[in-house]
Structure formats: structure tokens, C-alpha cells
Amino acid sequence: xxxxxxxxxxxxxxxxxxxxxxxxxxxxxxxxxxxxxxxxxxxxxxxxxxxxxxxxxxxxxxxxxxxxxxxxxxxxxxxxxxx
Length: 83
Ligand SMILES: [Zn+2]
Known about the structure:
- By secondary structure, this protein is mainly α.
- Helix content is 75%, strand content 0%.
- It has one domain.
- Helix 1 (3-15) crosses helix 3 and helix 2 (20-32) crosses helix 3 (34-53).
- The N and C termini lie far apart (71 Å).
- It binds zinc ion.
């Protein structure tokens, strides 16, 4: 496997959809090519960051909560604790 081929398979490798024999060649190339190890690491970081951005559909609620809602919660809390 060449560096170019390896970069083409990275997405499949990380998602686990790579055929076992291709995976073997992939890892064999990583063992001899520090450049591709570095590339794989930076690719993983990018994917991780990208997932956070597109997580809204299936993941937990996004960090951005409407301010109206926050104020409603806060005022409800202060009322009940006073009450
Ligand atoms: Zn390489």
C-alpha cells in the first residue's frame, strides 16, 4: 500500500468498514511510515471535532439553550425555594 492509497482508506479504517486484508496492509504501512501515522492522528482529531459539530440529531442537546428558557427556569427555581 502506498501513502496515497492509505489516505483513501482512512475513513473506512476509522469507521471499521475496511476489509480485514486491507486493514492488514493499512497497518503494515503505518508500521513503516511515520508520516502516515501523523496524518492518521490529525485526521482522527478532525473527525472528532467534526462529530461534535454534527451531533445534534442523535446526541445530547446542544449547548445553546434559549435565554427565555433559562430565565423561566431560574425564576421558577427562585419562586419555589422562597415558597
Ligand atoms: Zn505512508
